[in-house]
Amino acid sequence: MSNLINISEAASLALHGLVLIAKNQPLRMNVKVLAEELNASQTHLAKVFQNLSKAGLVRSLRGPSGGFELNKSAEDITFLEIYEIIDSKIMLGECPLGKNHCVFQSCIFDNELNRISTDIYDTFKKMKLSDF
Amino acid sequence: MSNLINISEAASLALHGLVLIAKNQPLRMNVKVLAEELNASQTHLAKVFQNLSKAGLVRSLRGPSGGFELNKSAEDITFLEIYEIIDSKIMLGECPLGKNHCVFQSCIFDNELNRISTDIYDTFKKMKLSDF
DNA sequence: TCTATTTAGGTACTTAAATTCCTAAATAGA
DNA sequence: TCTATTTAGGAATTTAAGTACCTAAATAGA
Q1: Distance separating alpha carbons of residues A80 and A128, to the nearest angstrom
Q2: Residue partners of A53: CB distance under 8 A and separation at least 6
Q3: pLDDT tens-digit readout, A80-107
Q4: CB B17 within 8 A of CB B48
Q5: pTM of the predicted model as reported, rounded to 2 decimal places
Q6: How far apart are CA A15 and CA B24, in angstroms?
Q7: Residue A121 touches partner B, C-beta closer than 8 Å
Q8: Do B89 and A16 touch (CB under 8 A)?
Q9: pLDDT for A58-69, tens place per residue?
Q10: Residue A17 contacts B, CB cutoff 8 Å
Q11: Number of Cβ atoms within 10 Å of the Cβ of A25
């Protein structure tokens, strides 16, 4: 793997799927169609959207002609929000390696990792569904 | 997990261990002592240093009073080199999610991820063992 | 009302990466 | 030469993510 930035397949699916849904508004889209368009695993995508739905980002409707639609305006959905729902909440300012105790008094990374983490956070926050 | 930047425990152990060794020059240090000072898993650290040794970054000596020592000057060892030995070679310019094909013509991340990846790469490259 | 469709949710399986375990090989020192 | 120490290397285990499977619940449309 050569991913310097930690974004799971699931979070990527969420973003890409939501972009399609945003573009397709005001019509709903179901998992089958989304998976086909994204050339992705249908079951995985279904699980991801189940979580987005539980978190209130999308509304779901079952049955024929059912599917998912945005539950808020595309301008109000940032990738940060998506990321935190699917992957995990971002904690800035802590050790970027997740260590509580460190043998070195001053971080040997000299806050460079925190600088970059903040950059990533800000970038994720700026990325809105409506930009795509 | 809340690590935005993908640095494995192994790569972190490698960096922290090498810093200790650099500071302790010209004396060797063995895995047992290193693990104690870093408060880390001895077996894992051993495996990591086995790989650093195979890659030529450190020299090893077995037996009593054995251990590891740097195989090149601390100024010439960057965290980038350590990272690429332990985690993986960094490929810039490719899809930061590792996708070969994308349904969107232009990356929906609008090269922001590539910008950050390049920043990380440059930062890793600037970090030398002698800085610590 | 019945049926086909679609999401919900729990469980199980698969895979790759990370980590640990175990035995062999080397070597310093007694 | 013998023993204790230390790294080497392969195998095994653990863990987490991704994926699949199955049944239930909802609902639109016939």
Answers
A1: 9
A2: A59, A60, A68
A3: 999 999 998 888 877 766 666 777 877 8
A4: yes
A5: 0.90
A6: 48
A7: yes
A8: no
A9: 999 999 999 999
A10: no
A11: 12
DSSP code of A68? E
Residue spans of alpha helices (H) in chain B: 9-24, 31-38, 42-54, 79-86, 112-126
| Crossing angle (nearest 10°) for helices A31-38 and A9-24 | 110
**Cα gap A131→B33, rounded to integer Å:** 53
A103/B contact by beta carbon, under 8 A = yes
User: Cis before residue B64, ω within 30 degrees of 0?
Assistant: no
What distance in Å separates the CA atoms of residue A21 and residue A30, rounded to the nearest whole number?
Answer: 9
Q: In Å, what is the CA distance from A37 to each residue of A11, A32, A42, A64, A71?
A: 17, 9, 11, 19, 21
- What are the backbone angles phi and psi of residue A51, rounded to the nearest 5°? -70, -40
- Distance of A120 CA from C7 C1′ (whole Å): 33
CA distance to A6, A17, A27, A68, B31, per residue, from B7 (Å):
9, 28, 41, 35, 21
Q: What does DSSP assign to residue B29?
A: B
CB A55 within 8 Å of CB A85: yes
Measured between beta carbons, which residues in chain B are less than 8 angstroms from residue A6?
Answer: 1, 3-6
Pairing mode of beta strands B58-61, B67-70: antiparallel
Q: B52 and B20 in contact (C-beta within 8 Å)?
A: no
- For B17-70, the pLDDT digits (tens) are 999 999 999 999 999 999 999 989 999 999 999 999 999 999 999 999 999 999
